[in-house]
Structure prediction request, 117 residues.
Amino acid sequence: MAEADGSGLDPEDVKLVTLARAARGRTGATEGAAVRDRDGRTYAAVTVTLPSLTLSALQLAVAMAVASGAAALEAAAVVTPVTEVDPGGLAAVRDLAPGAPILVADPAGTVLVTLGG
Prediction:
């Protein structure tokens, strides 16, 4: 298992995990996520649960990237207390990047699994 402090991870991937952790911690949300587009821009988001709208953190991060003009993604990270990635979030990443790695980390930032890539 790779720690978010950089052991075994590319520095840009460490940044994604750090951004996802920070977003989650700042809001107290269930999940935090971050994505990096092909231009190197990053987008961080958290789970949104409203009476009229529910989005996973990964879905929102992808939506933010698309709304900013991103046509493709390089990588994504999700910080979550569970070991699974929301199917909707996974599908959103795959819409823009079928083979992009998705790092799944626990709340401490330990990457438990990398999907794809």
